[in-house]
Structure formats: structure tokens, C-alpha cells
Write a structure and sequence with these properties.
Length: 328
């Protein structure tokens, strides 16, 4: 029998975690042969609510779920973690300046970075979901210098999946027929969903669509603003689809991407595609043996170049702001 894999989820009593934890327990993330030990990390005020979630997890009688532990202590929370999903973050409240938001999240992600370095398993993989996700991941990574930088990532898979969904809808083809979608840059409204390398079946996506105006004036802004559209329709943010994307992200990082396809992950730049080294930016990546590799040598046309540069400039600004606060 396989030993259980320890998965730590922060913000465990929040909306995204409510969608996420049950999918993990059901084996959707690490597969049907991997028993899971869940560690739920919460702030003290939310520990009671996390206990309720743990009761529901127990009531799922999941065959793969070996144990659930709840804590408000990061060092206990990340103890032995092979997968760390940092979902909890401080939301912007009314009257809060951007600097206040960065400082509040800075305190959370410096502490969690240090605790991951001190306590997590040697093979830990970190996914940051809590916003501003790329910069929160940057802070955690820089506060865990003993952990390889390639173990830190932030979620742009929801944006990637949204881009696939829009292209599927437009072409009338199933989502499963779409390959090589790419999201570049920051998980923010400046992100650049790029279908110039994508295929619908065996056809280049740009030929399948054959409408430049739709790509520029409909596809890109629809993907960028999809989060707001869901808040407007549902009255609260996109929690289940974010949870589903987090599952996809860790599953593909762990089990590998399909031949001939790639996924989007925000990872530490090695300088590829002119993205300054050290920024956590979204790239097309392939995964194998638990490691990701940025897809090399793609042609970037002038249209794409300008959009990548714009989003990366925003990431550099966020980095400069947290640097000024002494967080990285
Ligand atoms: P959610 O579970 O809905 O969201 C959690 C985080 O994910 C937010 O930062 C949210 O950003 C972000 N996010 C990223 N992508 C998306 C997306 N596509 N759609 C929606 N959200 C996205 O928040 P809740 O407020 O329900 O829960 C947060 C929990 O975190 C609370 O229980 C709180 O106690 C906990 N928390 C835990 C901490 C810790 O463990 N140390 C620290 C801080 C909070 P955005 O705000 O932009 O919507």
C-alpha cells in the first residue's frame, strides 16, 4: 500500500477550498492510487468553520482520505507537505489602499514561505491561488531560499481553461479538441490569452476562427474579464471553477502533460521570452516526472510581444512594491 501524500490547503474554510477539498479527497488530483492526508491551515477566527468542513469530509467516507488535521500554526500546517495549495489570502476591503493589501498579504506569504522551507517535504510543490497570486508566490519563494525555485507556482490555469472554453464555443468544437492554448503574464486583467500557437483538432486556431477582430475585440477581453462577469451573474466569485483549475494544475504538474499539448502555469522566469529572471509569470509549460519545462522557441509576433510586455511590466511593478516593503 502506498503511504499517504500530505496535501496542505490554506484558507480551508473559504469558498474555493470548499470546492477543492472534496475533489482532492475523491482522488481527482493525485489519482485513484494515492491516499491523501489533508492538512487544513486557517487563521484562528476561521478554525471553527474549518472543523465543519472536516466533518463534511469525514461524512464523504472517501476511501482515499486517510486523515484530516486542522491548525492555525503554519509550521504544523506544512509539516511533511508534498503539495501546498495556498488559497487563503487577505481580500481587499473597502478603503484599503493597494499598499495595505500588499503588506497584509506580505505578512501571510513571508510566514508561509518560511514555514514551507522549515517543515515541508523535500519534494514539495507549491501552488498559490490567493490573490495577487503571482506576487504572493514571489514572496513565498523568496522567503524559502532553501527550496528550489522551480517548486513555486501560481494559478493561471483557470484563465487557460476559460480561453479554451471561449475558443470551443466559437468554433463549435469540443474543448478536448483544443491544444496548445497559452496564457502569458499576470493573473490579472493584463493577462494575455494567446491562441496564435493553439490548434483546434489539426487546424491552427487562427485559421479555425478566421476572424482577427473576434480574437482581438472579443476573445481576449472576454477571457480577461470572465471573473467579473461571473461575479455579476452569480453574485459571488468563481469558486468552483477556480478549484477545478487548481486540481488540473497540480494533476498535470504531478502526472505530466499529454503528448503534443501544453498547459499554462505561472512559474519563476529563467529569462525566457524576455521575461525578467525571477518574476513569477505565466508561460506555456510541459510537465514530466514532476517537473515543468517552459516551452522553448515559440515565435512571438509584434501583437503578442506588446501584450506580454504590458503584463510583465505590471508584475515588475508589483515586485518593486513588495521589494520596497522589504518582503522579497
Ligand atoms: P475564496 O476561497 O473565494 O478565495 C481565496 C483566494 O483565491 C482569494 O485571494 C481570491 O482572490 C483568490 N482567487 C484566485 N483566483 C480566483 C478566481 N478565479 N475566483 C475567485 N477567487 C480567486 O475566498 P474566501 O474569502 O471564501 O476564503 C478565504 C479564506 O482564507 C478564509 O477562510 C480566510 O480565513 C482564509 N485565510 C487564511 C489565511 C491563512 O491560512 N493564513 C490567510 C488569509 C485568509 P480575490 O480576493 O481577488 O477574489
Amino acid at each position: 500500500d502506498q503511504a499517504p501524500v500530505t496535501v496542505t490547503v490554506t484558507g480551508a474554510s473559504g469558498q474555493i477550498a470548499y470546492g477543492l477539498l472534496f475533489r482532492i479527497a475523491a482522488g481527482d488530483m493525485l489519482g485513484p492510487d494515492a491516499p491523501v492526508r489533508l492538512r487544513l491551515l486557517e487563521i484562528p477566527a476561521a478554525v471553527r468553520a474549518a472543523e465543519g468542513v472536516a466533518m463534511e469530509l469525514e461524512d464523504g467516507a472517501f476511501p482515499l482520505l486517510s486523515d484530516v488535521e486542522i491548525t492555525d500554526d503554519p509550521t504544523i500546517g506544512f509539516d511533511g507537505a508534498s503539495v501546498a495549495m495556498l488559497v487563503g489570502a487577505r481580500p481587499r476591503t473597502q478603503g484599503m489602499e493597494r499598499g495595505d493589501l500588499l503588506a497584509a498579504n506580505g505578512a501571510i506569504f513571508t510566514t508561509q514561505g518560511r514555514a514551507i522551507e522549515a517543515a515541508a517535504a523535500d519534494d514539495v510543490k507549491v501552488l498559490v491561488v490567493g490573490n495577487p497570486a503571482n506576487t504572493n508566490a514571489l514572496i513565498a519563494m523568496n522567503n524559502a531560499p532553501g527550496v528550489p525555485r522551480t517548486r513555486f507556482s501560481a494559478l493561471t490555469r483557470l484563465d487557460h481553461n476559460r480561453a479554451i472554453a471561449q475558443l470551443a464555443h466559437r468554433t463549435g468544437e469540443p474543448a478536448a479538441s483544443i491544444r496548445r492554448m497559452t496564457v502569458w503574464g499576470n493573473h490579472s486583467a493584463t493577462q494575455y490569452p494567446d491562441l496564435s500557437h493553439a490548434f483546434v483538432g489539426n487546424k491552427p486556431a487562427e485559421d479555425a476562427v478566421s476572424d482577427r477582430t473576434w480574437i482581438e475585440d472579443t476573445f481576449i477581453p472576454t477571457v480577461q474579464q470572465r471573473g467579473s462577469a461571473i461575479i455579476e451573474a452569480r453574485g459571488s466569485s468563481s469558486a468552483a471553477s477556480a478549484a477545478s483549475a487548481a486540481i488540473d494544475h497540480v494533476r498535470d504538474w504531478t502526472a505530466g502533460t499529454s503528448d503534443g499539448d501544453w498547459v499554462s502555469m505561472a512559474v519563476c522566469s529563467d529569462g525566457s521570452y524576455g521575461v525578467p529572471e525571477g518574476l513569477i509569470s505565466s508561460f506555456p509549460v510541459t510537465c514530466a516526472d514532476g517537473e515543468f519545462r517552459i516551452v522553448p522557441n515559440l515565435d512571438i509576433d509584434d501583437f503578442s510581444r506588446a501584450r506580454i510586455d504590458l503584463s510583465v511590466a505590471e508584475l515588475a511593478q508589483e515586485r518593486d512594491a513588495v521589494r520596497a516593503l522589504g518582503l522579497v
